[in-house]
Write a structure and sequence with these properties.
The complex is a heterodimer of chains A (about 600) and B (about 80). Chain A is α/β, with parallel strands linked by helices. Chain A is built from 25 helices and nine strands. Chain A folds into two domains: about 190 residues, P-loop containing nucleotide triphosphate hydrolases (Rossmann fold), CATH 3.40.50; about 375 residues, no CATH class. In chain A, the strands form two sheets. Chain A has a six-stranded mixed sheet with strand order 2-3-1-4-5-7, with helices on both faces. In chain A, strands 6-8 form a two-stranded antiparallel ribbon. Chain A is elongated. Chain B starts with 12 loop residues before the first strand and ends with a strand. A five-stranded antiparallel sheet of chain B has the order 4-3-2-1-5. Chain B is of the alpha+beta class and about 80 residues long. Chain B has a single domain, classed as SH3 type barrels. Chain B is built from two helices and five strands. Classes of the chains: A alpha/beta (about 600), B alpha+beta (about 80). Bound molecules: guanosine-5'-triphosphate (GTP) and magnesium ion (MG). Chain A: Belongs to the TRAFAC class TrmE-Era-EngA-EngB-Septin-like GTPase superfamily. FeoB GTPase (TC 9.A.8) family. Chain A: It is found in: Cell inner membrane; Cell membrane.
Chain lengths: ~600, ~80
């Protein structure tokens, strides 16, 4: 099998091209350093089946953070038939050097000048034949985003692979990138024509508002508010349809069917698995919309602006602007956010960032809060409850960094590119939304079903009056009652350690109702103060096993992982305790 | 010699010397901030936040402490 790899500086469009070539769904964002793992795919090209690898971005061939080192190691160890070097055609003044550096290693190079749509708009003209002659390899102009030049690229690759000899880059021959600057400048001067002055672009105009010292923060809050409001408004009718649908299935079909079954089995299937899983499934539209809208934000270039805006604050916490972006990524899911810290070079700085990320209010926790806020607070108050939880999430993450920054003193010098704003690609937005929905459905059909089935068994075995769940509840009673959480919810919290998606399903099973009835029942048994305390605890304590596993893998330290878990459990309890007792003391 | 940190906004300058530590220098150089290139500061972040710097067609942010270690020579416009 033939092998090719996509190489290039961060944010040049490697993953976009990878998706174009392979039909894959690698994540794309207008944020340098999104890809931190090697993604692979296979495509038939000409007579061969070709193995394509999308690498993390690299600035040059030495040093760098873990993501860059991964790419270096891959290049050094893998025998490749072609290295497809993706350059940003608008930034050749600093990117041609990488082509020279790689060419000097004798790798079989093909250069793709990507973003040629932007280069054209900027009036940049490139003499590709000239460049190709000097670099000694083919040079093509493409736009991975629009698909321009991609068929030609495929054709060229197929031709090249017919005669290609696999080759492994010899990294012992790497010379410093500075050695190539003179030649780079010379190539650039000779083969690239650029208008001497550019009119102020749209990016500068938007940045004047987004990066404004006083307006920047309101713009951020507004962006986030729009994200959640839009998700909520658009998915509410869809959610209603889902609820109606599951309700109908239950009453028209499942209940009559289960009538002849032994009561234990009927209870297990209807009130256990069905009620539990369907409560969770009604959140499918929210997942889809939330991640689609998140993809729009990611692809716009806003993340880098958020990093700029927040760096001053984050620096005082021992973190940097990128850490704030990871917290934002964590709003989707904490796991990719943890992986995203690979772009941070300093180990201590990385650990401190990883300590903060699990407090980021992820979409799984959002489901619980949406449900509880909707069930227990008036429609006028519910959005404020949610908003306050987001503030608590960020405050706890930042507070944690502040508390421990002395123990993770780092000196992480960094410079981060702010790419121009770009319009999101509809196809990618759809892929993101649908991809996450599919993962959610997969989780629902395995973990959540198993979880709610177990919860039902635990709450009904040997009998409802003397169940194992009762034993567990009694055990945790002394810990949970001071924070206002009824101990029969302790089973839900324990399953929440595995995955927060199970919590709602577990609640439905414990309470013995689903959907609207569950909401009504909770409204009768929980008051606002204990409900908020429950939400605070759920927000802060260990997110899920996947997060713990990611922490372990990325930190390579069991001690750190245990510390993170213990800290979050302790903090969750203390915060909930202070809130609950404080509110009660104040007479609420 | 003035440093990048002291440069007035939108004032073009020529980069002379990078006195930052090697790892950061490597990154800045990769982003285009090299001796003899023209640089300008576009904006300064609030709360003594970072600087937004432009070199060629690349805009990037860097901390002020690092900018204090970059000697520049302002160009008359
Ligand atoms: N205008 C334009 N934008 C593009 C083109 N190709 C990619 N983009 C955009 O550039 C940004 C970066 O694309 P990615 O594919 O994530 O870049 P990458 O090289 O994989 O980035 P890293 O994984 O961070 O190294 C995204 O916002 C893309 O939509 C193109 O040909 N034209
Ligand atoms: Mg990528």
């Amino acid at each position: 099998m033939k092998r090719i790899a996509l190489v290039g500086m961060p944010n040049t469009g490697k993953s976009t091209l990878f998706n174009r070539l392979t039909g894959g769904t690698a994540r794309i964002a207008n944020w340098p350093g999104l890809t931190v793992e090697i993604t692979t795919g296979r495509i038939p090209l000409g007579a061969h089946l070709v193995h394509v690898a999308d690498l993390p971005g690299i600035y040059d061939l030495e040093g760098g953070a873990e993501d860059e080192r991964l790419a270096h190691a891959f290049l050094a160890e893998t025998s490749l038939d072609a290295v497809l070097l993706v350059l940003n055609a608008t930034q050749l003044d600093r990117q041609l050097g990488l082509a020279l550096q790689l060419a000097a290693l004798g790798v079989p190079l093909i250069v793709a000048l990507n973003m040629s749509d932007e280069a054209r708009r900027a009036g940049i003209r490139i003499d590709r034949e000239g460049l190709a002659a000097r670099l000694g390899c083919p040079v093509l102009a493409i736009s991975a985003k629009r698909g321009e030049g991609v068929p030609e690229l495929k054709h060229l690759l197929a031709q090249h692979l017919q005669t290609a000899e696999p080759h492994c880059a010899d990294f012992s021959r790497v010379t410093s990138s500075t050695d190539w600057h003179a030649e780079e400048a010379q190539l650039f001067g000779q083969y690239v024509r650029r208008p001497s002055s550019l009119p102020e672009g749209i990016t500068a105009k938007i940045d004047r508002w987004v990066l404004h010292p006083w307006l920047g923060l309101p713009v951020f809050v507004l962006t986030m508010y729009c994200l959640f409001q839009l998700t909520y408004t658009l998915s509410a009718p869809l959610q209603d349809v889902m609820k109606a649908l599951t309700g109908m299935i239950k009453s028209e079909w499942l209940t009559p069917l289960a009538q002849g079954w032994p009561p234990f089995l009927a209870g297990f299937v209807v009130e256990g698995i069905f009620d539990g899983a369907s409560t969770v499934l009604t959140f499918t539209p929210i997942i889809f919309l939330f991640f689609s809208l998140m993809a729009v934000i990611e692809d716009s270039g806003y993340f880098a602006r958020a990093a700029f805006m927040m760096d001053g604050v984050m620096a005082r916490l021992g973190l940097d602007g990128r850490g704030f972006v990871m917290l934002m990524m964590g709003f989707g899911c904490n796991v990719p956010a943890l992986l995203g810290t690979r772009i941070i070079r300093d180990y201590k700085a990385r650990l401190l960032t990883m300590l903060a990320i699990p407090f980021s209010l992820c979409s799984a926790r959002l489901q619980i809060f949406l449900f509880l806020a909707g069930a227990l607070f008036s429609p006028a108050r519910a959005p404020w409850v949610l908003l306050s939880l987001y503030f608590v999430s960020i405050a706890v993450a930042m507070g944690t960094a502040l508390v421990f920054r002395k123990h993770f003193v780092s000196n992480e010098p960094f410079a981060l590119e702010l790419p121009p704003y770009r319009l999101p690609v509809i196809g990618h937005v759809w892929n993101r939304g649908w991809g996450e929905t599919r993962e959610f459905l997969k989780l629902a059909s395995t973990m959540i079903v198993t979880g709610v089935a177990l919860v039902w068994l635990l709450t009904h075995y040997p009998s409802e009056q003397a169940s194992y769940a009762g034993v567990v509840a009694n055990f945790f009673q002394p810990v949970l009652s001071p924070i206002g959480v009824q101990s029969d919810l302790s089973i839900a919290l324990i399953f929440g350690l595995v995955a927060k998606e199970v919590v709602l399903g577990a609640l439905a099973v414990i309470v013995g109702h689903e959907g609207k009835e569950l909401a009504n029942h909770l409204a009768m048994t929980l008051d606002a103060v204990s409900a908020y305390s429950f939400m605070l605890f759920t927000l802060i304590y260990v997110p899920c096993v996947s997060t713990i596993a990611a922490l372990r893998k990325e930190s390579k330290s069991l001690g750190f992982t245990v510390f993170s878990v213990v800290w979050s459990l302790l903090l969750a309890w203390v915060v909930a305790f202070v809130f609950y007792q404080g509110a009660r003391w104040l007479g609420f | 010699m003035p440093t990048l940190a002291e440069l007035p906004l939108r004032q073009l300058a020529r980069v002379c010397h990078l006195r930052v530590e090697p790892e950061l220098a490597q990154r800045l150089i990769a982003l285009g901030l090299r001796p003899d290139r023209e640089v300008e500061v576009i904006r300064r972040g609030w709360l003594s936040g970072p600087l937004l710097v432009r070199v060629g067609a690349t805009e990037f942010m860097m901390r002020r402490e690092a900018a204090k270690l970059i000697d520049v020579e302002p160009l008359s416009s």
